[in-house]
From TrEMBL:
<dbReference type="Pfam" id="PF01168">
    <property type="entry name" value="Ala_racemase_N"/>
</dbReference>
<dbReference type="GO" id="GO:0030170">
    <property type="term" value="F:pyridoxal phosphate binding"/>
</dbReference>
<dbReference type="GO" id="GO:0008784">
    <property type="term" value="F:alanine racemase activity"/>
</dbReference>
<feature type="domain" description="Alanine racemase N-terminal">
    <location>
        <begin position="9"/>
        <end position="224"/>
    </location>
</feature>
<protein>
    <recommendedName>
        <fullName>Alanine racemase N-terminal domain-containing protein</fullName>
    </recommendedName>
</protein>
<dbReference type="InterPro" id="IPR001608">
    <property type="entry name" value="Ala_racemase_N"/>
</dbReference>
<dbReference type="GO" id="GO:0005829">
    <property type="term" value="C:cytosol"/>
</dbReference>
<keyword id="KW-0413">Isomerase</keyword>
<dbReference type="InterPro" id="IPR000821">
    <property type="entry name" value="Ala_racemase"/>
</dbReference>
<dbReference type="InterPro" id="IPR029066">
    <property type="entry name" value="PLP-binding_barrel"/>
</dbReference>
<keyword id="KW-0663">Pyridoxal phosphate</keyword>
Length: 354
């Protein structure tokens, strides 16, 4: 018996994408941290990343890293640690990204209690204005980090495109590479990781513009959706359809395309605007904005268009479809990253691993 709504996960395609990307990166001396965040650390999917050759598993949530403890690869915490979670960070993450000395001090204290050494990457802000110390403060910050006994600075990293949309290039990543060299020279230490960002940095490899010192990338969307995130292009020889949303039709009726009556606010506080297309055959699907960002759904049937959604219902136009849909039929969608993130997080979406 089929369960709706469901998200179908094709492990073979994810495994293929991972292998394609790890082999590409390996040519340039770049190791891949496979990001498990978007699928909430589900071990079966993480296993496909491991089979595909990732060097470590990375996630932004401690809750997900806990699910991955049976994997023997290093675990990287992507989101800056919370002071309140210092002990859990040290317990469940082998490495964490950091930018605050107060937090690093707490990690050192927790590591001492747990009789461990916790590895950290110092994040450097190269202009995207999310996490990281400003480049002028890097040396002073490193000097303070080296005073802690139970944390080990193993590298530096940066994040680009996620907040400010700043595109990685040979210039800004070149600054990161130069900082790594300067840190090693001044403090007589060796940095094993210089992490050049996420899936938005991939395009530099094929252009031959990745600074040689960059030896680590944190890849998520490029693995699960086969897309680089600097310009949104599909990556050659990868699949873009490893995930498929399947929803069931619960009502199918011909109705006007514009509501009748005075238009006020919808359930989300917005005043909707409608285009008059006359009478249309409208299918209501049992899924809504509580589960998914509707703007990130792509109907697989090219003749279906999305009218809109409430919290529990997705309304689509099936007037021009060759298939004669009926109540109880399923409608399938490709998903973009924003939709995938919400679908995986929603407890109301059944996940079917293929």
């Amino acid at each position: 018996m089929n369960i709706y709504p469901r998200l179908e996960v094709d492990l073979q395609k994810i495994r293929h994408n991972t292998k394609t990307l790890t082999e590409l990166c390996k040519k340039y001396g770049v190791a891949v941290a496979g990001v498990t965040k978007v699928f909430c650390g589900i071990p079966e999917i993480a296993d496909a990343l491991v089979d595909g050759g990732v060097a470590m598993l990375a996630d932004s949530r401690i809750e997900n890293l806990k699910k991955l403890q049976n994997f023997h690869l290093p675990k990287l915490l992507l989101r800056l640690p919370m002071v309140s979670q210092a002990r859990e960070v040290v317990k469940y993450a082998d490495i964490s990204l950091n930018s605050e000395l107060k937090t690093i001090e707490k990690l050192s204290e927790a590591a001492k209690e747990l009789k461990k050494i916790h590895n950290i990457l110092l994040m450097v802000d190269l202009g995207d204005l999310r996490e990281g110390v400003w480049k002028d403060h890097v040396m002073a910050t490193v000097e303070e980090i080296l005073k802690f006994d139970y944390v080990h600075l193993i590298g530096i990293g940066t994040n680009l495109t996620c907040y400010g949309g700043v595109i990685p290039n040979k210039d800004n990543l070149g600054v990161l590479a130069e900082l790594a060299q300067a840190i090693e020279s001044k403090f007589n230490i060796s940095l094993s990781i210089v992490s050049g960002g996420n899936s938005s940095s991939l395009y530099l490899l094929e252009k031959g513009e990745m600074p040689p010192r960059i030896n680590h990338l944190r890849l998520g969307e490029s693995i699960v959706l086969g897309r680089e995130t600097a310009f949104g292009n599909a990556i050659p020889h990868t699949y873009q359809d490893a995930f498929t949303l399947v929803a069931e039709i619960v009502e199918l009726k011909e109705k006007p395309s514009v509501p009748i009556g005075e238009i006020g606010m919808d359930a989300f506080g917005n005043q909707p605007v409608f285009e008059d297309k006359g009478i249309r055959k409208r299918a209501i699907l049992a899924i809504g904005r509580q589960d998914v960002s509707v703007q990130n759904l792509i109907p697989i049937d090219p003749n279906i268009t999305i009218f809109g959604a409430s919290s529990d219902h997705l309304i689509v136009d099936v007037t021009d479809c060759e298939k004669n849909y009926s109540v109880g039929n399923e409608v399938k969608f490709h998903v973009e990253y924003g939709a995938l993130l919400q679908l995986m997080t929603s407890e109301y979406i059944y996940k079917k691993i293929l």
